[in-house]
Structures are given as C-alpha cells and as structure tokens.
Design brief:
This protein is α+β, with helices and mostly antiparallel strands. It is built from five helices and 13 strands.
C-alpha cells in the first residue's frame, strides 16, 4: 500500500505537534505509517534553514505545489534519500533521485512535484531556502559565481533548474554536523546558525 499526501492540507491532518515562535517552528508527524519531523529556523527575510527527518513503514508519496516566489533551495542529504517526479516542467528532468552523501541546488518556482519515499529508510536532510538578492548584500562582483547563479541574478527571465553538485565534501560534513549540534539558544543560536549556513552556501557555490 502506498500512502499519498496531497499538499499541506492532508499533511496537517497527521501532525501531532506543530509549534512556532518568532523565529523557529517545528512539526511532528507520527502515525501508523511512520514518523516525520520538520524544524524551521528563520535567519533573515531571505534565508531559512530546515532540518528534515523521516522514516515510514509504508511507501509515501508527498505531492506539493511550489509557489511562484523566486527562491533557491540547497539540499544536503545525510542519510536516505528520495525520488522526485516533476511532470511537464520544461528544462527539468521529470524523474530524478537525491541521495545520501550528495548535495543539490535548484530553482523550481511555480511547479507541481511528487516526492517518493521508500519504506523503512531513515532520511535526514538539511535544506536552505534563499533568494538571489542574498548575494547582493555582499560587496564585490559576480564574476566568480557559477554561470547558473549569474544568469539567475542578471537575467529578467528566470529559468528553472535542478543541479546535482556532487559528493558532500568533508568541509561540508563538518558544518552540517555543527548545525545539527548547535550549542546555543535564542539570539546566540540565530547568530551561530546564520554563520554556519552562510559557510555552507559558500562551500556549495565554490563546488
């Protein structure tokens, strides 16, 4: 049997615990078909950190509809993985996998996608949601940025992409561990996590 969850409405029916404060939120799903948790941290108006953990006893397909906001997503899979199908999206492979030990960068506004999770497999992933104008907040030229990012910043027409960037490097793994084991709370936590997220983005863009 395959469980299908359609959007936030269906997902919300299964959430046992949803809590938010000014800068952080968490949702805990615990049902007969498995467990899943999501932890959001809002660092700036154009920078968010999300930590995903899930393990299901049944195959699960989660359908989501992306809005048209022009944010990028950086993903780092620490364990497990998932298969994603994106039907009828020009310029993007319509069936691909994201797996542990690798990292990905994508820009996919205004699409419908299906995330497929295998049963009895723990998936842990750190995601960063950020906007191109984040780069504008730092002085200097964009000459050393990868072509995909330069085009996204400079061109009025924004083209979608999903880019596998290769294996997660030892330097990235160290920062990911530091994010998961953040030793601070409240304001100091935000400062620490923002510094680590920017460090992680720097390593990914350099890769």
């Amino acid at each position: 049997m395959t469980i299908r969850l359609t959007g936030t409405e269906d997902f919300g029916e299964f959430c046992e615990d949803v809590q938010f404060n000014d800068y952080e939120g968490k949702a805990q799903l615990s049902t007969w078909f498995g467990q899943s948790s999501f932890y959001w941290t809002f660092l700036r108006h154009n920078l968010e950190l999300v930590i995903f953990n899930n393990e299901y006893s049944q195959p699960v397909i989660f359908e989501s509809i992306h809005d048209d906001l022009p944010f990028l997503t950086s993903k780092f899979f620490l364990s497990g993985g998932m298969r994603t199908t994106t039907p009828n999206v020009p310029g993007v492979i319509d069936d691909y996998e994201e797996v542990a030990g690798y990292n990905y960068l994508f820009f996919l506004p205004d699409i419908r996608e299906f995330e497929h999770f295998n049963p009895k497999q723990r998936t842990q992933c750190i995601g960063i949601y950020w906007y191109p104008e984040l780069l504008d907040s730092f002085q200097g030229s964009f000459d050393q940025l990868p072509t995909l990012l330069r085009q996204l910043i400079e061109n009025p027409i924004k083209e979608r992409f999903h880019q596998p960037l290769g294996a997660t490097t030892p330097a990235m793994r160290l920062v990911l561990k530091q994010i998961l084991q953040c030793p601070f709370r409240e304001k100091l936590r935000l400062i620490y996590l923002e510094a680590k997220v920017l460090e992680l983005l720097t390593l990914q863009i350099a890769q």
